[in-house]
Description:
21% helix, alpha/beta, disordered C terminus
Amino acid sequence: MRRFSVGVLPLILVCRVGADWLQSVGADRLAATFADVPNAAGVLSIVEAGNTTGNNYLPDATNYAFVGKTLVNKGPGTGTSGHATTVGQFFYGNPTSLLTAPAEIHAYNASYWLEADFLNYNSNAAPLTEVARVQNHSWIATGAEVTASLVEAVNQRLDFAIHRDGFVAVAGVNNGTSTTLPPLLAQAYNHITVGLTTGGHSAGFTAFDGTGRIKPDLVAPDFLTSYATPKVATTAGVLAARAGAEPHFLGGADLPRVVKALLLAGATKAEFPGWARTTARPLDLRYGAGKLNALLAYRTLESGEATASASALAPSVGWAAESVGNGAQKIYFLEIPAGATPAPFSVALTWHRLVNDGTQGPFGWSPSPVALVNLNLAMHQAAGFTVGTQLDLSASAVDNVEHIYAPALAPGRYALVVTAPSGAATTDYALAWRSTPPVARTRKVLADVEEKLKCLESAQTNAPSWFAFAERP
């Protein structure tokens, strides 16, 4: 078996694992705002780098945070890893994650996961079927053996598996502002890449398998990408569990597309004064779509699914899972009510890079990527159900993400327009958007808001993005 030089992401040891991060991303307010927030997402996969002998990659199943968890060792070794244990605590531990309920955890050694244990790289077999709902990857691959052809094959196999099996994969970038984007796994298309709210991570444009795409997709609070990554993964698990249940019943490739769109639309920018995007570059070059916000992403999901319509309004907060092709447009009219305070408005469009079987026969399998369809996203003023002046456009030629953000959207009627180029194949996409949500607040939440207001005023700082959505009694 071919071995890869894979390594864990942290540069230093972390001695304390706590749940403070949950408050930082609004997750502590989920249960106070919504009923029946799921705390389980079915089977989960944790993929970790082993030590030099490939043995120590397992979370410590006896750790206090893993009571009720069933660890299934999918690799060849038996040794535990402090790194894997900490990642697991943030991914599915109690009380340090959002997925605190009993669950089955599949643990992989990254070197073997790349080959026969899952992706089947360097063989003529397709990737194995993933039964987990979320995969977490807090590792990178280095070394001379990580060639462009290897990176492309691995990326394509991962993108194929995500689309075929309908799971969410979350991967970290490297630590350090002077480092380059790791070839594996940060430069795939259909997964979610994670950096740090501190900005201390590799960021910028991809160099493999389609150059010029922006990574990471978003950032999360921590000082090490290894531990920021499972914070996004546990949030993705909650979203995936809820999206797969009544009344949404999402499944298949729609599930990872919608979860990604929800996370990107929910990400906040107020923490980063220099956050910027352009028409051709949908995300910030360091912070992606912004900081993870579990509350805003979940609120967008619960606001309900919408469909494009030429004669009916979509909600001011919502999401869609539809398709478009061959020069067509899908239009979503929405209205910010008169008298509403101008508030941040965020919308994200995601779709998959498709990968087919290049052998097209019964005696083997090899990845054959399909040229990425170049969807665009525009925001217009609207009069009635007539599209008016274009206000903003996200039209990257290379990314499979488009994103528009307005720091303070005034009351009025607007149209979100998803466009496919002429001749394009019909393409499934997910769209998510958020503005001031019509969600009732509990007394506890209102009290928390008032307390935070006092802190903000005394510190003479700018209100973060959650404040724009805090409704007064």
